[in-house]
Write a structure and sequence with these properties.
Blueprint: E1 2-6, H1 10-15, E2 20-25, E3 31-32, H2 40-48, H3 56-65, E4 70-76
Length: 85
């Protein structure tokens, strides 16, 4: 499960070590991040298409070059532990 965080709030998540699952862009082109879990071969292909970035800075460069903006970041929700039965 993932949760969308507005770009203004994302630095707090990133500073705490959270890795982006995907970047929400104003042009609605899917751009995934390192927490997506896809294989390295597929990520290499996405990178050549401008649809993968390791971090916010890289994603911003790519998205800005195509005239769009990052409006949010998707993060993986922490798993909830079940305590007791």
């Amino acid at each position: 499960m993932t949760t969308l965080v507005e770009i203004e709030d994302a630095p707090t998540f990133l500073a705490s070590g959270e890795k982006p699952y995907a970047f929400e862009t104003s042009d609605r082109v899917t751009m995934v991040g390192p927490a997506c879990g896809y294989g390295s071969e597929y990520l290499s292909r996405l990178r050549t298409e401008g649809r993968y970035a390791e971090n916010l800075e890289e994603a911003t460069r790519i998205v800005t070059a195509r005239g769009a903006a990052i409006i949010g970041i998707w993060f993986v929700k922490p798993s909830q532990k079940v305590i007791g039965t």
